[in-house]
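Technical annex, item 7. During the second reporting period the consortium partners agreed on a shared format for inverse folding records so that results from different sites could be compared directly. Each record opens with the tokenized structure and is followed by the designed sequence. A conforming record, contributed by the partner at site C, is shown below for reference.
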């Protein structure tokens, strides 16, 4: 069964469906290693990050196992390996980060020009919460959500606030959480905190352009961390 090029709509699901079809048809037998990420991307006519999301989706659903530094291997579906079923509406994590870059960059600019002292304090307190959890070896998710929420609150628009909260809560889906298992570490969270501090300083200075740039830079770096080579996963 030859691979077919796909259209960029819920791209990771289309890729996952094609690979799943190859597995069920016997093209890739139990225990076999799938083609390298770069080869799948070339055959499908998509980016490697899109293939990454598809492979993570297949792992979450129990079709494959990702072995860092070795490859992706087909599992025996008859051995109780069926895991969580990913909802068809779940966004791809990397596309989500790109969307957040567009929206939250502008929100940060608004926060810089419209935010009040109480908002700056809430943003600063959220970073402190992140720092405390990170130093205890705990993923600072509560502080991260509070940080992005506080910036949206400073923009003084309930639609933008609810959009940011929906964006952030989408990262609690099984696909994003599994990706985070591979690429989120204490050093990566420390880098994120430093990026957050740059956003805070721009907002505190009431510099909308700098706040936008700092938030966009944060999202770009987040995207890069989740797009890193498998060989770098959990290597820090």
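Designed sequence (site C submission):
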């Amino acid at each position: 069964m030859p691979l077919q090029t796909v259209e960029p709509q819920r791209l990771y699901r289309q890729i996952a469906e094609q690979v799943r079809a190859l597995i069920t048809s016997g093209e890739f037998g139990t225990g076999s290693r799938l083609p390298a990420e770069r080869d799948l991307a070339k055959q499908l006519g998509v980016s490697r990050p899109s293939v990454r999301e598809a492979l993570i989706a297949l792992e979450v659903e129990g079709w494959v196992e990702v072995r860092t530094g070795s490859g992706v291997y087909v599992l025996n579906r008859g051995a109780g390996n069926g895991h969580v079923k990913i909802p068809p509406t779940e966004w791809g994590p990397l596309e989500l980060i790109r969307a957040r870059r567009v929206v939250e960059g502008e929100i940060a600019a608004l926060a810089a020009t419209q935010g009040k002292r109480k908002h700056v304090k809430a943003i600063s307190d959220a970073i402190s919460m992140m720092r405390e959890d990170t130093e205890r070896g705990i993923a600072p998710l509560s502080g991260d959500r509070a940080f992005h929420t506080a910036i949206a609150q400073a923009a003084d628009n309930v639609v933008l606030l609810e959009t940011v909260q929906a964006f952030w809560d989408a990262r609690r889906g099984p696909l994003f959480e599994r990706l985070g298992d591979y690429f989120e570490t204490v050093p990566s969270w420390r880098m994120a905190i430093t990026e957050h501090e740059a956003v805070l300083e721009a907002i505190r200075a009431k510099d909308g352009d700098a706040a936008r740039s700092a938030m966009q830079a944060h999202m770009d770096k987040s995207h890069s961390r989740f797009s890193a080579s498998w060989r770098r996963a959990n290597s820090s």
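The domain at 93-232 is CATH 1.20.120.530 (Four Helix Bundle (Hemerythrin (Met), subunit A)). Residues 87 and 173 are 9 Å apart (CA to CA). All partners now use this format for quarterly exchanges.
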